[in-house]
Write a structure and sequence with these properties.
The protein has about 425 residues and is mostly helical. About 80% of the residues lie in helices and about 0% in strands. The chain has a single domain, classed as MFS general substrate transporter like domains (Growth Hormone, Chain: A, Up-down Bundle), CATH 1.20.1250. The chain has 19 helices and no strands.
């Protein structure tokens, strides 16, 4: 392979040199929001046991805090998406950053389990558009042939946020306890907010679509989404639900599983960071894999390999080198595959309803992620399974079901967003 690697052999530029400064700033802003989103949310997966002990509730009850956060995200995603389709992408992105950061700080100040539930509900509503708005902004600003790569890079923010949460558990938790974990994201959020205000441009694609819409009768993007694309919305919602469900027995319960084995905090943090590093590389690679195998084939292959890697991980926790390797592979393939989800969603929806649709569909899907830990733990208790067996069973089962659903999904590789805007409604 020649040193100048590109997706189009007819050009002599490296692909990243074709991205303008403004397009990079859009990606950096969206990526930063996603980093903070992950940091503020994933901190709770390390301290579920502490929260259960503090407020004297069962661990399975404490796991419902994930569902509380995820269960309202579809509402926030739809509301913020509709706002974004009306007023632009930039201001709603700022609002969501401020909202979920405040929700995380409030989590650390909770005085009862009930107040904690309320704050997690509010955080979930505000964090909902963190990824969907960013994905829409990147999709609308980056060149078509690099769109999947840009969204894949955007998703690396989740992996970096995971590393941040793991580091906070290792260095902040021992001194400040579980409450201190939820204040870590405040300083970077303040810096990022200023960057968005002064350096990030509004989406030109949104401006063109809005100008075109202004020439005709004004339509509510949320109403338009469900009335013009009901079948597509329903199918993609189910697909996202299954894909998200398959990620979270691993992401949410692995730290708890390792802590139940009385393993040292350094080992728990090390495994989590190995997974997070794998996620970062997986997110980056996902865009290139999607351009080679197509959107459907790439996700199917990655979640299949990822689920098997999760099984190997939970069966080898007594072997540190093997655990770290399989944690990396689990993050790379299973979680890394989600770097393609935003591409599928943005490529199936026209610009007039794109933020509304991606906001709703992605965040409806994450309800599956919120349910996964509770269902896994409840099934484990009811059937007297070990936690390792339950994590393996639900991870592999969801990967199989996701692969079946993806077989019937429209392949959108190579589609131009303007063609999607002009297609006949289905």
């Amino acid at each position: 392979m020649p040193p100048d690697i590109t997706l189009n052999r007819q050009t002599t530029k490296r692909w990243y040199r074709e991205i303008t400064g403004a397009q990079w700033r859009v990606l950096i802003a969206a990526w930063g929001v996603w980093v903070n989103d992950a940091l503020d949310f994933l901190a709770i997966t390390f301290v579920l046991k502490d929260i259960a002990n503090t407020f004297n509730v069962e661990l399975s009850t404490a796991s419902l805090l994930l569902l509380a956060t995820y269960g309202v995200r579809w509402i926030g995603g739809l509301a913020f998406g509709g706002l974004s389709d009306r007023i632009g992408r930039k201001i709603p992105l700022l609002i969501t950053l401020a909202w979920f950061t405040a929700g995380a700080v409030a989590t650390g100040l909770s005085w009862s389990f009930a107040s904690l539930v309320v704050f997690r509900l509010l955080l979930g509503f505000g964090m909902a558009p963190g990824f969907s708005l960013g994905a829409a902004m990147v999709a609308e600003s980056w060149p078509e042939r690099y769109r999947a790569i840009g969204i894949g890079i955007l998703d690396t923010g989740w992996g970096l946020g995971t590393i941040g949460a793991a580091l906070a558990y290792q260095f902040v938790y021992p001194t400040f306890g579980w409450r201190g974990m939820f204040f870590v994201g405040l300083p970077p959020a303040l810096v990022l907010g200023l960057f968005i205000i002064f350096f990030v441009p509004e989406s030109e694609a949104w401006k063109r679509a809005r100008a075109k819409a202004a020439q005709g009768p004004q339509k509510n993007p949320i109403v338009q989404l469900f009335t013009q694309y009901p079948g597509r919305v329903a199918y993609l919602a189910v697909l996202m639900f299954v894909l998200c469900f398959g990620n979270w027995p691993f992401q949410a319960l692995l730290p708890t599983y390792l802590r139940n084995l009385n393993l040292p905090a350094s080992f728990v943090s090390g495994v989590a960071m190995a997974s997070a590093v794998g996620q970062i590389f997986g997110f980056i690679a996902s865009g290139f894999i999607a351009e080679q195998l197509g959107r459907r084939g790439a996700i199917s292959a990655m979640i299949g390999i990822g689920a098997l890697s999760v099984a190997a991980l939970v069966l080898t926790t007594g072997n540190t080198p093997a655990a770290l390797i399989f944690a990396f592979l689990s993050g790379f393939f299973l979680v890394g595959a989600s770097g393609i989800w935003g591409t599928i969603l943005t490529e199936n929806l026209p610009s007039g309803v794109r933020a509304s649709g991606v906001g709703f569909l992605y965040n409806f899907g994450v309800i599956g992620g919120g349910l996964a830990p509770f269902i896994t733990l409840s099934t484990m208790n009811r059937l007297s399974l070990t936690m390792s067996t339950a994590i393996i069973a639900f991870s592999i089962g969801a990967a199989l079901l996701g692969g079946i659903l993806l077989y019937f999904t429209r392949e959108t590789k190579g589609m131009n967003l303007s063609d999607i805007d002009n297609e006949v409604v289905q």
